[in-house]
Amino acid sequence: MAQRLIRMREVTHRVGLQKTAIYRRIQRGEFPRPIKVGRASGWIEIEVEQWISATIAANRAFAQ
């Protein structure tokens, strides 16, 4: 699978969190860190998808 960078707009859309919530989680080590590409930042798509999957799994385990 080819790696792809996604920008903040797509990240917020996928995870359902606002920018400030995402940056707070990054500071606490709870969300993947972006990488710099020139002056812009982007997230590695697979890392965001893995975070989503882990969050769902943790939620499901907690609910049982």
Task: Record the SSE blueprint.
Layout: E1 5-6, H1 8-15, H2 19-27, E2 35-37, E3 40-44, H3 45-63
In a few lines, what is going on in this structure?
The protein is an alpha+beta fold and about 60 residues long. It is about 55% helix and about 15% strand.
Structure description:
- The chain is α+β, with helices and mostly antiparallel strands and 64 residues long.
- It has one domain (5-63).
- It is built from three helices and three strands; from the N terminus they run βααββα.
- A three-stranded antiparallel sheet has the order 1-3-2.
- The protein is globular.
- The model has no long low-confidence stretch (mean pLDDT 94).
- Pfam families: Phage_AlpA (PF05930).
Oligomeric state as shown: single chain
- Written as H for each helix and E for each strand, in order along the chain, the element string is EHHEEH
Number of separate structural domains: 1
Specify the overall morphology.
globular
Percentage of residues assigned to helices: 55-70%
Termini separation (Å)? 33 Å
> Could you describe the largest sheet, including whether it forms a barrel?
3 strands, antiparallel
Radius of gyration: 12 Å
Spans with pLDDT under 50 lasting ≥5 residues?
Answer: none
Strand content: 15-25%
Tally the beta strands. Answer: 3
Strand order of the largest sheet: 1-3-2
Report the total helices: 3
Mean pLDDT, nearest integer?
A: 94
Structural class from helices and strands?
alpha+beta
Q: Which properties best describe this structure?
A:
single chain, 64 residues, alpha+beta, three-stranded antiparallel β-sheet, 3 strands, 56% helix
